[in-house]
Automatic annotation (TrEMBL):
GO terms for molecular function: isomerase activity. The chain crosses the membrane at residues 21-40. Keywords: Isomerase, Membrane, Transmembrane, Transmembrane helix. PANTHER family: HYDROXYPYRUVATE ISOMERASE, INOSOSE DEHYDRATASE. Coiled coil: none annotated. It comes from Streptomyces milbemycinicus. Residues 93-350 form the Xylose isomerase-like TIM barrel domain. This is Sugar phosphate isomerase/epimerase family protein.
Length: 379
């Protein structure tokens, strides 16, 4: 999508913002791209970013450019009777399609009660409405952060709810269904073994329904598994063999039943945070996490990504602050080049902090910026 002053004016008018505020927003997010080192990056990850000049190989094909609706959750949830801004699923789909997006990922099926279809579309009838609006706007839904049973073994009520979500997913045409949380918050091997059994069982049910089950992960899932060494007072291991928790999960789950969605921002936070571990013999070992390397070793296990950007902040404990996609320092040109398979992976722009209490149009403004920068990635 090539933007001219005319198309920028159309964009700001559709968002209901004045020209001064639109330009100030674009200037502010561009300022976040001031050159800074990629924290903890290996030399290949820290390669110069593409200038996005339009030359070279497009890294994310047009039909693979997506966004998770969590980014614009305030727009979906606001009352259309009180604003001229896009509100509710139908209007937000229309706006995202105007930006150029061709894919979305759901983060639940709730919206404002005054939006077309009512407050909850988590039903067969609601899914039919959503599917119609997706089709009307040339959008395909790739997945949903929805219901995953917490109990194991499963209760009959949990299984019924899970199967209802599978039915909704099929109506929407989702190839994937998943959750926004890690398989377990534990650091212990025994708990990850239980989580793997649960996910293999759920994955088998999803596969029979024609869907791929996926887990979306945050930084903690890339910390080191405690699997040996002296035991603590509760009889639990206190040291590590150097295996990261999610790497272990990948090794013990069935690749035909369980898939993953890498949030590239949180993977880089893990690269910053989890660099050393205490080995079984008590020595301190260094092991710097390589997000793209994990994907390349397990490429077909990663049909989905969250494309989320950050600028360096060495004071917040994470190493980065979130900013609109393409205005930070995470090297997506190198990341997408390394993982390859551009017609297989589905990157979803995400920005947790896009909604604003003072600028109601901000999340959609940032969604537009994210699309432009995703489309501009070249190798």
């Amino acid at each position: 999508m090539n933007h001219t002053p005319d198309t920028d004016d159309q964009l700001r008018r559709s968002l209901g913002v004045g020209r001064r505020r639109f330009l100030s927003t674009c200037t502010a997010v561009a300022a976040g791209a001031i050159a800074a080192p990629v924290l903890g990056a290996s030399p290949v990850q820290a390669a110069p970013r593409s200038a996005g000049t339009g030359r070279g190989h497009t890294l994310v094909p047009a039909d693979k450019r997506g966004i998770i609706l969590y980014t614009v959750r305030d727009a979906i949830g606001r009352d259309p009777l009180t604003t001229s801004l896009p509100s509710g699923f139908r209007a937000v789909f229309e706006q995202l399609a105007r930006f150029g997006y061709r894919q979305v990922e759901f983060a639940g099926y709730g919206q404002h009660a005054n939006a077309p279809g009512g407050a909850s579309l988590e039903s067969v009838q609601g899914a039919k409405l959503l599917r119609r609006w997706l089709d009307d706007n040339g959008l395909r839904a790739q997945g949903n952060h929805g219901f995953i049973p917490g109990s194991w073994p499963f209760t009959s009520a949990d299984l019924d709810t899970f199967k209802k979500h599978l039915e909704i997913a099929n109506i929407l045409g989702l190839p994937h269904m998943g959750t926004g949380g890690d398989p377990t918050a534990s650091s212990y091997k025994a708990d990850w073994d239980v989580a793997a059994d649960k996910w293999n069982a759920l994955g088998a049910i999803a596969r029979r329904a024609g869907l791929k089950l996926y887990t979306h992960n945050h930084d903690a899932a890339y910390s080191f598994l405690l699997d040996g060494g002296p035991l603590d007072a509760q009889g639990k291991p206190t040291r590590s063999s150097g295996i990261r928790k999610l790497e272990y999960f990948l090794s013990i789950t069935d690749p035909k039943l369980v898939w993953l969605e890498m949030d590239v921002f949180w993977a880089h936070v893990a690269q910053y945070k989890f660099r050393t571990y205490t080995a079984h013999d008590g020595s301190t070992q260094t092991n710097v996490f390589d997000p793209a390397g994990l994907v390349t070793r397990n490429n077909k296990r990663y049909p989905l990504f969250h494309a989320k950007d950050g600028v360096v902040n060495a004071t917040n404990g994470m190493g980065y602050d979130m900013v609109p996609f393409g205005t930070g320092v995470i090297d997506y040109t190198t990341f997408f080049s390394r993982v390859g398979d551009r017609n297989y992976h589905n990157p979803m722009v995400e920005q947790d902090n896009a909604p604003s209490t003072t600028n109601p149009g901000q999340s959609l403004e940032h969604a537009a910026i994210g699309y432009r920068n995703l489309a501009a990635l070249r190798r």
